[in-house]
Amino acid sequence: xxxxxxxxxxIVRTALAAIVFxxxxxxxxxGIWAWILGIFAVVFLATSAVGYCPLYxxxxxxxxxTAPGGKK
Length: 72
Prior knowledge:
mainly alpha; 62% helix
């Protein structure tokens, strides 16, 4: 599994997950939307933690910057 997520991408995903969890905990987000967005938040946290997004891999996309010399 080759990493394909840059730091900015990880930060944005983590922040969005935190906002969703906060909305769920405060009761501002309820019902089916809480479940759907909660699942997305968990996926965002997991992909941020490992630095790999399967969807990016499928569409040959990466937000990871390459260092001079071609190394990531």
